[in-house]
């Protein structure tokens, strides 16, 4: 039996006809635990991480050769094979024609395992248009995925939930709709466990991830492959200028944005808001990463023996990249953000492309993607695409 047969229609691992994942809400006590058990030799393990494949440390001196080797190393650690030969076979439904842009739902095969539904927004006119692959966050909120960034016109229940999320993190604005108003084709799809592919319960994440590992696969690797394929699908649309496709995301979506830029040549630029750090600086007592659960969506086993987090993002160099963080964001300690930014700056500098990377800290903000931050991202996209 292969992984396809073990994936249920909503993405949950099943066996012998019954779900292996139990439901239920996380308790207040569980939610408060942010320090996972660390062994006494944890500092020794961190010291052994020297990231020998990082650009500038690696013995490979030709940058293009380094990029090929580093990308191949990341792809090997995804534990999910490439899906290039799987037909997308798109199906379009729910189309509504507005004055500012057209909205429709599209269902595609990103992998051979299941079909994925997303929102597709298109500005008026003939095109081809620049485009944005918009990647949603985690937030431990699974009833909505694509709806966090694109206003759901097809479901009033999700609209209420989505508006509350937008009010909390996005100054009440749906970033996807704003991008479409400003002339961009926008594609936003549900990651496994969210929206139409969920909803997952908080404590199910670890079980789902372990089942993937038991199957010789990876939850984070599947998400990376799906995002890679989504970029190819978007770039291949007749309405899109394939030379002007960007990836944009907040929080986990920011991680997905720079990761997709590293793994896909279809991405010409990427904007990542509130997800960049050095690994060692993030793996400290009190950090959310130690809780487990959400960490599995961004965990490629063994990759840290070769590359640090900003080293992976550097595979995208020298393409334009924008990184933003909030100075009050407790998820990403300031030391980790500085360490990562220093590494990124050095890589783009080595390519004489300092003007193509922008890194900004908003000292008064936490883990948010506000109206002002969104406006700056769109202005930056207008400049670089």
Tell me what the structure shows.
With 385 residues, this protein is α/β, with parallel strands linked by helices. The chain has 13 helices and eleven strands. It has helices at residues 3-6, 28-32, 42-47, 63-78, 156-169, 175-181, 204-214, 219-235, 252-263, 279-282, 309-313, 334-350, 371-384, and strands spanning 14-15, 18-19, 91-97, 102-109, 115-122, 129-135, 185-189, 240-250, 269-273, 321-326, 357-362. Helix 9 (252-263) links the parallel strand 8 (240-250) and strand 9 (269-273). Helix 8 crosses helix 9 (252-263). The model is unreliable at 1-34 (pLDDT under 50).
Describe the structure concisely for a colleague.
The protein is an alpha/beta fold. The chain has helices at 3-6, 28-32, 42-47, 63-78, 156-169, 175-181, 204-214, 219-235, 252-263, 279-282, 309-313, 334-350, 371-384, and strands at 14-15, 18-19, 91-97, 102-109, 115-122, 129-135, 185-189, 240-250, 269-273, 321-326, 357-362. The chain contains 13 helices and eleven strands.
